[in-house]
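Dear Dr. H.,

I hope your travels went smoothly. While you were away I took the liberty of generating a structure for the chain from your last submission, since the lab meeting agenda had it listed for discussion. I wanted you to have the full record in hand beforehand rather than looking at slides cold. The sequence, exactly as received, is reproduced here:
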Amino acid sequence: MCVEAGALVLLALVAALASASCVELLGLDPLSSPPDAGPAASREPETDSEVDGGGCSPNPVPSRPEGPGGGGEPVYAATLSLDSPADAGIPIPADLDGRCTVDEGSSSCLLPDNASPNAYLDGVGGADNALLASLAQIESTGTELTGPLGFVFSSTRINARIKQGEYGILFLLREYNGGLDDDDVTLDVIELRRVFTPGNLEGSSMAARPRFGPSDVIYPNTESVALAEAATLIGLARGSGWVRGGVLVVTFPQAVTLHIPVSTDRRPFDLVLELPRGFGKVVPDPLHPRLTELTLTGRVDADKLVGHLANIDVGEQPLAICETPAFDTILAATCAARDLASNPRLDVKAGDVGKARVPCTHLGLVMRAELYDVAPGSLRPPLARTIREPPTCSRVVTCPAR
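The corresponding predicted structure, in token form, is as follows:
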């Protein structure tokens, strides 16, 4: 399932990829074992569209090549902007449930009673991107959400912060041989605390906004890196995979935690991306290969999402957003967008005639980062993040049962 990928609002959610310990930072929270299918759902597929899924022609995942292997120096790339996966320079395998959803009856799980077609209908290639749709709906509900909430739900604002060097994401592609094919590579994902170009203001030695080139100075966040004895930067979200035909395919073995910086918040907003994968475009070169874009896909637990959203801080005085009237809109839009089960083993795929459906509990997520080259010498010692005491929602917030 998915939405039209034109909405850009999600990408405020990729503000940073990190967490607060070696196990949790950047989402090294281990995924629990896939749950059992549980009780049988209320009904089984009945129509042709439910059985064949409508045929969205999803993009296949490039297979691992037989070789060659080998590797060179790490390839460094950082975020230039966050945008729609529709702008990707490669076909993105964004059909997360193996089924094309063309109507409510053809979903891979039981949709909420108040499900929004804008969220659950598949987009190009069967892409499942319901989280984009729900955030687009939230952003369009009225001006009351354009204040403190705009820092979360507006890609324009989040990209403005990238342009100011207020945060970013660093990707390190390791063991890449620089060719069209490589059967074994790794990718580290690291949150950046500050990016700037020294003396970029005329006649001033003060730090200024980045130029997004080799003259930039980059400060990682201590929450998202570890330093080895040789002062080697090690990302705490590490995936492994391959390159085939210039397309990078990476699987992360554990959930990736995305940390969203909210300007008025006293702590980052956490979003946990389960079953994450990455698909990137590389420019092969034996001496200077490049990574020019990276798209992340995965599933987001709706209950965890609204629980974290409820505790976003608004205003100068500590106040959790769940205490404001606007939160009812957020809660309703997010819960109505549930379009996936928690695990692919629970999905009713095309051809799974007779398999019972379970209620949808998660939202699909597909987001793309446009990248620029970073010089290894640009990195500086990590900067710590100052976190003030945050407010706490006075109630436990979860989505209503289907």
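Two observations you may find useful: The chain has one domain: 9-32+58-378. The two ends are 18 Å apart (CA to CA).

With kind regards,
E. W.
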